[in-house]
Amino acid sequence: MARSLLLITMCMLSAAFAFAQKPLKVMVIFAHPDEGEIYTGGITALYTKMGHQVKFMSLTNGDAGHYSMKPADLAKMRYQEAMEAKQILSLGDYEVLDYHDKYLKNTKEVQDKVIKSIQDWDADVVFTYYPAEGGHTDNMTAGYIVRDAAPRLQMKKKPVFVYIRDFHTIRFSYIPDFAVAIDAVWPTKLAACAVQRSQVNDAIPYKMGILDEVRANPEKQKKLVYENTYPYSSITPVNLPALTKWYGAAASNIQYIESFEIAEFGRQLNEDEMRELFPMLPRK
Q1: What is the distance between the alpha carbons of residues 138 and 25, in angstroms, rounded to a whole number?
Q2: Are strands 160-164 and 125-129 parallel, antiparallel or unpaired?
Q3: Model confidence at 184: pLDDT above 50
Q4: Rounded to an integer, what distance in angstroms lies between the CA atom of residue 257 and that of residue 236?
Q5: Does the global pTM surpass 0.85?
Q6: What is the pLDDT of residues 14-52, one digit of tens each?
């Protein structure tokens, strides 16, 4: 374990020093507060540790899905949780739109807000959901919103768009373009996910029928955070080839990863451009 962390840290540092560049501007656009953390908390922490700037944008306020809290109270709680995660991940910004959870629609109004946010941030890279029939409704709508808004961006150099697979679409047949080792920042990702208390301390254990025991036992809370985060950070037969492609023999020492696809509607990249926009990838 210690050897693995050392290797990954050395890879990250060598990438940082081998390729000095101006700070990148990165955005992650998703449907509900906490999803940027669970799906991209690792690569986000790597970006910010390397001096790049990251903004999260949630298209709903997350005001649904709790067994007892009123929507307005839940939205307020989830916003505060998002602000805690912002500090943990050293985000430059965390924007939460006031659309209702479960009712996100792909309208020109929300597209305009996404366009303004991307342009104001001057994003080099934008992560968002892979949109498809059969995925989580809000998540897929978020992906369609970004995809449909992209052609209307007024920027000198349009960003590269990157697909995140949500917990439904990850079951579809796909081949990730790259995978990023996040062992060196795994504790940071866990910490960012752990502050989503409305979910990991309340809603999730309630649905599992273990609410009282989780609330009474801090160790069970930690265990639930780990078990809720690990499936989005694990090596599988699907993402292993992408990990091996970029890390070679060092892939065998890696425990935690996040994998992604370059979206077809944005700029396409060669290997040198990949390493420029994803500088945590090992260099040749």
Answers
A1: 25
A2: parallel
A3: yes
A4: 10
A5: yes
A6: 444 444 568 999 999 999 999 999 999 999 999 999 999
Burial class of residue 173, CB neighbours in 10 A (0-12, 13-18, 19+): exposed
State the sign of the Cα–Cα–Cα–Cα dihedral 130, 131, 135, 136.
positive
DSSP secondary structure string for all residues of 72-140:
HHHHHHHHHHHHHHHHHHT-SEEEE--PPTT-----HHHHHHHHHHHHHHT-SEEEEEPP-TTS-HHHH
Determine contact, residues 224/204, Cβ cutoff 8 Å: yes
Of the candidates 135, 151, 159, the residue with the CA atom closest to the CA atom of residue 27: 159
pLDDT at res. 16: 46
Token pair 């990954």 is found at: 8
Residue type at 58?
Answer: S
